[in-house]
Amino acid sequence: QKEVEQDPGPLSVPEGAIVSLNCTYSNSAFQYFMWYRQYSRKGPELLMYTYSSGNKEDGRFTAQVDKSSKYISLFIRDSQPSDSATYLCAIPARNTGFQKLVFGTGTRLLVSP
Amino acid sequence: IAGITQAPTSQILAAGRRMTLRCTQDMRHNAMYWYRQDLGLGLRLIHYSNTAGTTGKGEVPDGYSVSRANTDDFPLTLASAVPSQTSVYFCASSQGRDQPQHFGDGTRLSIL
User: Fold this and answer.
1) What residues of chain A lie within 8 A of the CB of B100, using their CB?
2) Which residues of A are less than 8 Å from B42 in CB distance?
3) Residues 6 or more apart from B62 whose CB is under 8 A from it?
4) Among A2, B1, B69, B94, which residue has the least CB neighbours within 10 Å?
C-alpha cells in the first residue's frame, strides 16, 4: 500500500464551482499535512499546511484533516480558470517534521470559463 | 526576486555521459533537497542536505551524488547517465527540517 494515495483526475469543473480534492494516507503517525499547487512546466508551490485534525482556511482555500479516517481534503470555493493546475498533497515521512516529504501523485484540475 | 534557480532548464544527454544539475537559492535556507518527478510516480526524494557540509540519502539515491560546500548551492551529479534517469528534476529548500519546502522550476532531462 502506498503511503499517500491521490486520485490522478483529471477533474473538470465549470468556473464558480466548489472543488474537493482528496488524499488518503496509511501511517497514523503523520502530524503535518500540506497541499502544493503545480502549474504546467513549473515547480510545486506551497498552498497550505496544517497540523493535526480540523480545518484551516485561507481565502478561497480550506484544508481539512480527518486523522481518524486518515483522509485529507482541499476545498476550493468559487473556482477560477487560474486554479487549473495539478494539486499535490504531501505528508512528512515517518514523523520527521517537514524534512522528508511523501507526495501524492497529484490531481489535475481543469476549471472551464 | 528571491527563490531557487535551477540550470539548465532542459537537457538532452547521451547515455554514459556525466551531468551536473545546478541549484542555487538566495533565501539563506539551511536545508536543501533534490526530487525527481515521473508520471504516475509523483515526486520522489533523491538526496537532501540539512546544512552546509552534510548530505543524506532519500528514497531513490542510486546513480546520483550531491555535495553541499556552502549554504546557497546544492548540485546534483549523474556520474554515468542511464535512460531510466530521464525525468524532471526539482530542487527545493526550507529554512529548517521542520519548515515547508519551496521549489525551483525544474530541469527536464532526457537520456538517450
Assistant:
1) 34, 46, 49, 98
2) 88, 103-106
3) none
4) B1
Distance of CA B80 to the CA centre of its chain: 16
Chain A 29-88, residues with CB within 8 Å of chain B CB atoms: 34, 36, 41-46, 49, 88
Residue type, A107: T
The CATH fold of domain A4-112? Immunoglobulin-like (2.60.40)
pLDDT attached to residue A98: 52
Domain spans of chain B, in order of start: 4-111
Q: For residue range B30-82, list pLDDT tens digits in order.
A: 999 999 999 888 899 999 999 999 999 988 999 999 999 999 999 999 999 99
Q: Which helix (H) or strand (E) holds B41?
A: none
Question: What's the gap in Å between the CA of A8 and the closest CA on chain B?
Answer: 8
Q: What local confidence, expressed as pLDDT, does residue B41 receive?
A: 87
Q: Give SS3 for B83.
A: helix
Residue-wise pLDDT tens digits, A43-100:
999 999 887 778 899 999 999 998 888 889 999 999 999 999 999 999 877 655 556 7
In three-state secondary structure terms, B11 is strand
Which chain A residues contact residue B101 at CB under 8 A? 46, 98, 101
Grid coordinates given for B87: 525525468
CA dist., res. A96 & res. A86, Å (int): 26
Q: What is the pLDDT of residue A99?
A: 63
Task: Please tell me the predicted confidence (pLDDT) of residue A82.
Answer: 97
Q: Is it true that domain B4-111 has CATH number 2.60.40.10?
A: yes
